[in-house]
Amino acid sequence: MTNNPDYSSLTGAAYVLHEEKLIRNLELIRSVKEEAGVSIILALKGFAMWRMFPLVAKYLDGATASSLFEARLIYEEMGCKAHTYCAAYTDREFDELASISHHMVFNSVNQYLHFREKLQSQYPQISCGLRVNPGFSKVEVDMYNPTAPGSRLGIDAEHLKDGLPEGIDGLHFHALCENNSYDLEETLAVFEAKFGHLLHGVKWVNMGGGHLMTREGYDTEHLVRLLRQFKEKYQVEIILEPGSAIAWQTGDLIAHVVDIVDNHGIKTLMTDVSFTAHMPDTLEMPYRPGIVGTVDSETPYRYRIGGTSCLSGDFMYEYNFEHEVKIGSKLIFLDMIHYTIVKTTMFNGVHHPDICLFTRDGRLEIQRRFEYSDYKNRMN
Ligand SMILES: Cc1ncc(COP(=O)(O)O)c(C=O)c1O
Hints:
- By secondary structure, the chain is of the alpha/beta class.
- The chain has two domains: 7-15 and 251-336 and 344-379, Lyase, Ornithine Decarboxylase, Chain A, domain 1 (Beta Barrel), CATH 2.40.37; 37-247, Alanine racemase (TIM Barrel, Alpha-Beta Barrel), CATH 3.20.20.
- Helices cover 29% and strands 24% of the residues.
- The protein contains eleven helices and 19 strands.
- It has helices at residues 19-36, 53-59, 68-77, 91-99, 109-122, 181-199, 220-234, 244-247, 275-278, 281-284, 372-379, and strands at residues 14-18, 39-40, 42-43, 63-65, 82-85, 101-106, 127-133, 155-156, 168-172, 204-206, 237-240, 251-263, 266-271, 294-295, 301-306, 315-321, 330-333, 354-358, 364-368.
- The strands form two sheets. Strands 2, 3, 4, 5, 6, 7, 8, 9, 10 and 11 form a ten-stranded parallel beta sheet that branches. Strands 1, 12, 13, 14, 15, 16, 17, 18 and 19 form a nine-stranded mixed beta sheet that branches.
- Helix 1 packs parallel to helix 7 (220-234) and helix 6 (181-199) packs parallel to helix 7.
- The termini are far apart.
- Bound molecules: pyridoxal-5'-phosphate (PLP).
- The site of pyridoxal-5'-phosphate has 14 residues, from helix 8.
């Protein structure tokens, strides 16, 4: 059953996660993991709506953290320890993080050696790995390409020519972003060429995130074949840690038109949401979010969409609407769950949208409403 939500009861801005769509993604991901015989874990950096963690835990093998707070959230709300990778672990946080992690991945040999003695004496149950940098990626935007020349993320092959330091069980690479299985295949060929000499000596390989297996047209059978072949060849456990794929196209951001301003004939819909505060990737990546009721061809109803902050660039260039838009209209921004809610800010003190769930049985629940105190408490 596919329900269409009725958003008329929403009076303020809101992210709305559709439970049914999330379940559909999780089912697909679980089938890949079962057919390929790999572990798939949720990358919290992409989706951290923790009230959904018990559901996620039914389908996936846990979660990966990139910080102490993410690891704590996994521990508290998913009820398991984390597979942890931090770009740089600090002495201050290390013990707490180690106590709630089952795997720890290090971004440099230096960092691993700094903590090795502590790990071996106090946390012998933790399986340690190194993040390596294949120096190859199909990602074209540098902001999202961890393998660009000079990257700080992952160890270059030349530093591991002579093998791995004692105590390392696994290798981790992350080189994809919204990619397909054919991109993974090319990346794996480079990874094997550069790090193949180490692969027979490890227990596991974590192939990072960026596997957008829930996007329409993704060839999951090809992915399964690739993973099986790799596993067979090196006799290693494989872990994938997607974020986007889990919450891909699972919900909307609902906004309202508060005013319409006209400057030299350019009409801007002033809304109660902000691109910089509530959809930052639209400016960072950048990309144009889909909006319900707009078309590609030109119409008489052309409007810019204005964010509510005072940042000059907090707007999207003209969209063509099928119908005239009036003050009070709702705007529905599509696919606004992954990498949005986790990245919001309260810049300008702008009101944070509610976080809502559209349940499988058709109810629209407000799970979280933000208050002035949320803003105030961040400042002091
Ligand atoms: C180390 C690591 N793992 C996993 C992910 C999740 O990637 P995605 O959400 O594209 O699947 C990221 C994203 O930046 C990452 O940096």
